[in-house]
Design brief:
Structural class: mainly alpha
Distance between the termini: 65 Å
Number of domains: 2
Helix content: over 70%
Number of strands: 0
Amino acid sequence: MATELLWRSRTWKAIIALSKASPTFFVGFSAATLGVSYALATLTQMGTNPADDKKKEEMLRRKGGLTHRTMAQVNKDRLQLLLDEVRDRKGGNERYAKALNGESLGTHTSGTTVGAGSIKR
C-alpha cells in the first residue's frame, strides 16, 4: 500500500526521473538520505542518553567504598605487572592463557608472577 502511494507522488516520480538521467544526482540524493538518517539517529541517541561514560565512571569512583577502591588499585597493579612481563618477555604462554581464561594468577607481594599459583579464596 505504501508503494502505491509512493508511485502516485509527483515528487517521487521526479526523483526517479532525475536519478535515471543523472548518476551524480543519484549519488547526491543517496548521500543526503543516508546523512539525514544518520544525523536523526545520532540526535535521538544523544537526547535519550545524555550522560556520557566518563561522568558515570567518575560518579562511581566517588561513591565507591574503600574496599572497591582498594580492589581497583590491586587489579590495576596486577594488570601493570602482566603488561610489564609481556613487554620484557618473561614467563611462558601458559601463564597468559590462564589469565585470559579468567584464572587469577598473581602473588601477594610485589615482583614477578612467573610460576605463581592461583590465589585461594
